[in-house]
Design a protein that fits this description.
45% of the residues lie in helices and 10% in strands. It is built from five helices and five strands.
Length: 192
């Protein structure tokens, strides 16, 4: 992937904790203050750890759900309130998992909530010309999934063999579909 515009004045960053709505709302306001609008939000933050379900503490389960589900909600709600609804346009893209996620029951539960959040908001906010879509790529070859300390490589190999294409996806493939869904020229009618 290539950055088409290297003009540094067009870039911006601000750290925030997505679990804290006040911080997220401040981020959205800062973006609108700098650029005048927000066109696309890609909710791809996540945090989880592999563990057998019976070994996850209630606190560990809640931490992952708070980050992966509540953080996603905070981001889209703030983006909608601060920018998308006023603009009568916006695109929100959410990373998701469509199949079960062995050794990741906490993130599977959170992402099931994100899946319903996507479908519900796609219907509810369509009247504001906001499209909300989910990218559910399955297993992606990344530095994270190659980390033998975090992910059981035997399990990863077995998962790869269960994929009809016989391989895992690439980060570039996820980026390409995300760019497609973010395009108002190609995907303005795709919602939910």
């Amino acid at each position: 992937m290539k950055i088409l515009n290297s003009d540094k004045s067009k870039t911006f960053y601000k750290t925030c904790d997505i679990r804290n709505f006040t911080q997220v709302e401040a981020l959205m306001k800062a973006i609108v203050a700098k650029f005048g609008r927000l066109d696309v939000l890609i909710n791809n933050a996540g945090g989880q750890f592999p563990s057998a379900a019976e070994l996850i503490s209630p606190k560990g389960f809640a931490a992952v759900v708070n980050n992966n589900l509540n953080g996603t909600w905070n981001m889209i709600l703030a983006a909608a309130r601060v920018a998308f609804i006023r603009q009568k346009s916006g695109v929100n893209i959410i990373a998701n998992v469509k199949r079960g996620f062995p050794s990741m029951v906490h993130t599977g539960a959170a992402r099931a909530g994100v899946d319903n959040l996507t479908k519900t908001l796609a219907i509810e906010w369509a009247r504001h010309n906001i499209t909300i879509n989910s990218v559910a790529p399955g297993i992606i070859d990344s530095s994270g999934t190659r980390d033998a300390k975090r992910y059981n490589q035997k399990m990863m190999k077995a998962a790869q063999e269960s994929i009809p294409m016989g391989r895992v996806g690439t980060v570039d493939e996820v980026a390409d579909i995300t760019l497609f869904l973010a395009s108002d020229q190609c995907a303005s009618y795709i919602n939910g």
